[in-house]
Amino acid sequence: LVVSDTSYHGCMLQVRDVKFFPDGRSVVDRVLRVLTHSQRDGYHTAKIEYLEDKKVEGEELTELLKLHDSVYDQALGWFTSLKDDMKNQIISHFGQLPVKDSDPQDNPNGPAWCWWLLAVLPLENKAQLTILAMNTLKDRLIAIRRVLIFVTRKRPQ
């Protein structure tokens, strides 16, 4: 759950295979917005609304596919350029970068590699929340591209 002053967003995990990470985190499967929240018997409870990306067709889809391929290639370039010890830490904690989806609109929340990348990029919670709350893949890809440009330029040569 990511919280800002005005909103709550979170992710729900559909368990397909269990792999526990040392800090208890796992990779996003479904994006949701918390409508109301409370506690019951010491557990956090909430009424939620699942968020889904708005699908596009025609020329917009053609542009989205180009953007998707471009940002994936940029992400792969950034990841492969990391020092081996950093790459190995990421892989041991989050697994390999997922393969590029042939249809990035197939999953209601977009490609798995986007969520994997958001988990491993050095982002503050507020930035993660902003991207998490986006409901179009195009907007999310543009935001990820900006982050990748920033972290690539920031890295010492």
From TrEMBL:
Pfam families (alphabetical): LON_substr_bdg (PF02190)
Molecular function GO labels: ubiquitin protein ligase activity
Domain of life: Eukaryota
InterPro entries assigned: Lon_prtase_N (IPR003111), PUA-like_sf (IPR015947)
Residue ranges of coiled coil: none
Start and end residues of each Lon N-terminal domain: 9-144
Protein name: Si:ch1073-440b2.1
Organism taxonomic ancestry: Eukaryota, Metazoa, Chordata, Craniata, Vertebrata
